[in-house]
Design goal:
Structural class: mainly alpha
Helix content: 40-55%
Radius of gyration: 28 Å
Strand content: under 5%
Order of helices and strands: HHH
Length: about 110
């Protein structure tokens, strides 16, 4: 849940009790719940409208599929699962032998 663990939640609740007082806390919790419910309804409506506009081929579309991190992860995993193709050997190149120093161009550096 957003990288927040039990100790962080306890600290947040303690600060909320100290700042708002125990009398206002239930009302604030109710308002926060309503806000989350409205946000979820808004996101669901946006997803449904997007699905409707894109057509039936995107009926299984989820908004998290549009996250750039998800797209990159998906393509990286696909690339890692593909078998490696042997690289073509370039002419004139060979592996270095034991103790051989690679060529060094003084003018290039």
């Amino acid at each position: 849940m957003f990288g927040v663990g039990l100790p962080e939640i306890a600290v947040i609740l303690l600060v909320a009790v100290l700042v708002f007082g125990p009398d206002k806390l239930p009302e604030l919790a109710r308002q926060a719940g309503q806000l989350m419910r409205r946000a979820r309804q808004f996101a669901d409506a946006a997803r449904d409208e997007l699905r409707e506009e894109l057509g039936p081929e995107y009926a299984d579309l989820e908004l998290r599929d549009l996250d750039p991190r998800t797209i990159v992860r998906k393509h990286i995993i696909e690339a890692m699962n593909e078998p490696d193709e042997p690289r073509p050997r370039r002419r004139g190149l060979r592996p270095l032998t034991e103790g051989e120093v690679p060529p060094y161009d003084v003018e290039a550096t």
